[in-house]
Every structure is written in structure tokens, then in C-alpha cells.
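Field log, afternoon session.

UNIT: design team B
ACTIVITY: writing a sequence onto a fixed backbone
BACKBONE:
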């Protein structure tokens, strides 16, 4: 993504606050993150928007981070009818039944240990890579895992914001469907 303005960014900048808030909630379920992004509009460039997102993600407290994670389905179980989570978790689509069952068990063990969904930027990752990541990360301390989750959330937010500013009109047009 270049640092120049795009038609999608221009459209986002001119949306009514409630429409922009709805679009942002689809990107990240944290209300604090959404408010922070809205408060800095208009953005001159996509890079300025990404920077604001990084800053807002870094500023999330534990409750805000939990709210953001609650908007993400477990790996291997995208929300039915949700093309975003299905697209992001594409690496699990062709997984064997054995791998899917293993991911379910690993997701449950992770959630029991940390009290929240296993969050990973799944875009471009294979099912095996996601499995290996959850196995590895289950051994982390809660503090280590919160730092990793924040980093992964930042990556996901950037990918989704990129889609918003490059496909802005088509992505936002489907929000009411």
C-alpha cells in the first residue's frame, strides 16, 4: 500500500460518523479503538490511518483488548456467513478432519489457559502453521501472550484497513446486507 490517498480512504473520511463507526467495528470490535480512529479523521494518507490504528491498538487496556478479541471466531470455525473471517482463515478450509479436530482441542485448551480466543493473523497461514503457533503459544505466560495478541491484532487491523481503503466503496456498501 502506498502512502497516497485512495478513493476508498476519501470515502471513509467523508462517511457520517455512525457509518464510519460501523465500518470500523467490522475491522476491530473494540469500541475504544474505533473511537480513536474516528477522532483523528480525516486522514491524508492510508499510512496515517495505519499509524493511528497502531497507536490505538497499543493503547488498548485489558478490557478493550478482550472486547477486540471477542469479535474474532476461533481458528477453524469462522462465523457462518462472514466472508471476512472465512477469507482470513482460508488456510484451514482444506485442512483434514484430523487437523480440524486437533485445532478445536487446541483452541479449547488455549482458551481455558488464557480466558480468550486464540488470536493470530491467519491471512496467508496454513492450517499446520496455525496449529504449530497455538501449540507454541500455549506455553507462554499470560503477559507474553497479551503482547503477542496485541501484535497479531495490529496486523489483522492493518490488513482489514487496507481492504477498506482500497476496496472502500464495495466493502462499505455491503455493511447493511
Amino acid at each position: 500500500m502506498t502512502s497516497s490517498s485512495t478513493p476508498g480512504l476519501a470515502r471513509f473520511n467523508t462517511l457520517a460518523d455512525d457509518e464510519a463507526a460501523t465500518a470500523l467495528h467490522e475491522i476491530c470490535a473494540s469500541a475504544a479503538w474505533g473511537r480513536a480512529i474516528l477522532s483523528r479523521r480525516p486522514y491524508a494518507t492510508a499510512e496515517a490511518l495505519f499509524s493511528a490504528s497502531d497507536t490505538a491498538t497499543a493503547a488498548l487496556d485489558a478490557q478493550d483488548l478482550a472486547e477486540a478479541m471477542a469479535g474474532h471466531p476461533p481458528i477453524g470455525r469462522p462465523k457462518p456467513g462472514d466472508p471476512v473471517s472465512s477469507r482470513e482463515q482460508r488456510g484451514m478450509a482444506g485442512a483434514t478432519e484430523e487437523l480440524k479436530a486437533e485445532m478445536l482441542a487446541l483452541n479449547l485448551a488455549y482458551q481455558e489457559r488464557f480466558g480468550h480466543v486464540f488470536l493470530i493473523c491467519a491471512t496467508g497461514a496454513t492450517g499446520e502453521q496455525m496449529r504449530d503457533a497455538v501449540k507454541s503459544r500455549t506455553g507462554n505466560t499470560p503477559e507474553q501472550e497479551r503482547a503477542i495478541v496485541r501484535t497479531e491484532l495490529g496486523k489483522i487491523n492493518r490488513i482489514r484497513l487496507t481492504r477498506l481503503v482500497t476496496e472502500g466503496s464495495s466493502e462499505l456498501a455491503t455493511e447493511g446486507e
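LOG NOTE: Residues 91 and 125 are 6 Å apart (CA to CA).
NEXT ACTIVITY: expression trials, pending approval
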